[in-house]
């Protein structure tokens, strides 16, 4: 590895290590709770939610560190080259079967490392804290379905990517950027039709109070919205949520049944208004445009880093040798972790905008405040996390900020 490559990789690793350490520090010592919180929450509620978030935060960061450590070890040891030669021997020197076998091996090992963290975080802890309604069998069924889907999609992407490195040795990153961007749109369009139904069932709302609410809010927003679905979230969790998804003809608002069944109607209205606001402001399409930019930046940077790191291996004719895969995986692991603050800042700006538009649509800040309080209580949210934790990991503004924005309405406009 050249000196330049050494500097690039050390920088990425040191930055990820620093962010992880600061994250662990603030997770263990979240600090003072602002006095404004006591108007809405009891000390016991805040304490309990903080403990839960501490555990979940530690599980997430330890899973990240374990996988990263494994990839770093592979990249810097001679093991990966030896494995790559072994699969080439096993497949009689045929490149694509060898690549696929190598990919499956690494994928399985990463899965095995992640499994204890997934199981502890999304099954054990959820049951301990009374948030889960799911049986062990059902958890495994979700896990296996999700893993199979991941194996198929990432396996196909790896084959395509390595094929492109042989086909266009100097410009494969442009093709990869195009492919990822096209896939972003295709998957956003198809996700609600193909992927979501694998895990949940969805009931369209065709009549009743929710339908009336949607029609009234949609008229006010100047939209025609006919796709409102209720999802059977209660088969897994007691937490409540809603989301807006899809593209073009598949655009839809999805409400958890845990929300519709357990929350007062003016709070459900505030949620629907928030999702309609995402729709009206085109947040999915705006987010996808950022996604395209990120894709080309990512693939271009990957190409540059690989060129500097492997002058010899990747300037030979033909597709990259299979062991380059672990370097690509380590790169993606580090860059997506380091890119989180940017992604989350964009997401939080959309969420802030959606809250503001929702207040204009309902004209009911009181219901919005009660909604935020109820959601935080039932979902065990840290209502006022340390600024660093919010900056790094929060896709939505923290509860206290959302309450403050509603309190300021309409002065806040
Ligand atoms: Zn939102």
Automatic annotation (TrEMBL):
Residues 207-408 form the Peptidase M48 domain. The lineage of its organism: Bacteria, Bacillati, Bacillota, Clostridia, Neomoorellales. Residues 33-200 form the CAAX prenyl protease 1 N-terminal domain. Its cofactor is Zn(2+). This is Protease HtpX. The active site is at residues 275, 355. Belongs to the peptidase M48 family. Its EC number is 3.4.24.-. InterPro entries: CAXX_Prtase_1, Peptidase_M48, Peptidase_M48_N. The chain crosses the membrane at residues 6-29, 55-76, 96-125, 146-166, 172-194, 289-308. Zn(2+) binds at residues 274, 278, 351. It comes from Neomoorella thermoacetica. Gene3D superfamilies: Metalloproteases ('zincins'), catalytic domain (3.30.2010.10).
């Amino acid at each position: 590895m050249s000196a330049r490559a050494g500097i690039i990789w050390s920088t990425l690793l040191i930055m990820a290590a620093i962010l992880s350490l600061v994250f662990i520090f603030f997770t263990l010592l979240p600090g003072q709770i602002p006095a404004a919180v006591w108007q809405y929450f009891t000390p016991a509620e805040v304490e309990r939610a903080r403990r839960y978030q501490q555990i979940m935060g530690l599980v997430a960061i330890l899973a990240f560190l374990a996988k990263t450590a494994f990839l770093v070890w592979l990249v810097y040891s001679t093991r990966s080259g030896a494995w790559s030669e072994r699969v080439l021997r096993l497949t009689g020197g045929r490149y694509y079967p060898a690549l696929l076998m190598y990919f499956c091996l690494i994928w399985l090992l990463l899965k095995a490392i992640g499994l204890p963290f997934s199981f502890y975080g999304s099954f054990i802890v959820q049951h301990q804290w009374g948030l889960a309604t799911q049986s062990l069998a059902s958890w495994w069924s979700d896990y296996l379905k999700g893993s199979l889907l991941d194996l198929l999609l990432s396996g196909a992407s790896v084959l395509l990517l390595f094929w492109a490195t042989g086909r266009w040795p100097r410009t494969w990153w442009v093709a990869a950027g195009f492919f990822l961007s096209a896939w972003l749109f295709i998957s956003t369009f198809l996700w609600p039709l193909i992927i979501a139904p694998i895990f949940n069932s969805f009931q369209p709302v065709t009549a009743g109070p929710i339908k009336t609410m949607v029609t009234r809010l949609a008229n006010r927003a100047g939209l025609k919205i006919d796709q409102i679905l209720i999802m059977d979230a209660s088969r897994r969790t007691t937490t409540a949520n809603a989301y807006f998804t899809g593209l073009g003809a598949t655009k839809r608002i999805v409400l958890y049944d845990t929300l519709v069944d357990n929350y007062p109607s003016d709070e459900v209205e505030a949620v629907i208004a928030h999702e309609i606001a995402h729709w009206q402001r085109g947040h999915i399409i705006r987010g996808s445009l950022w996604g395209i930019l990120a894709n080309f930046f990512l693939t271009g940077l990957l190409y540059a880093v690989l060129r500097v790191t492997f002058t010899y291996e990747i300037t030979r004719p033909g597709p990259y040798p299979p062991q380059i895969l672990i370097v690509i995986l380590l790169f993606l692991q580090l860059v997506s972790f380091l890119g989180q603050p940017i992604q989350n800042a964009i997401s939080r700006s959309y969420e802030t905008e959606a809250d503001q538009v929702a207040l204009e649509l309902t004209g009911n800040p009181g219901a919005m405040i009660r909604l935020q309080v109820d959601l935080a209580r039932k979902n065990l949210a840290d209502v006022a996390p340390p600024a660093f934790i919010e900056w790094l990991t929060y896709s939505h503004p923290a509860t206290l900020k959302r309450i403050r924005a509603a309190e300021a309405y309409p002065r806040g406009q």
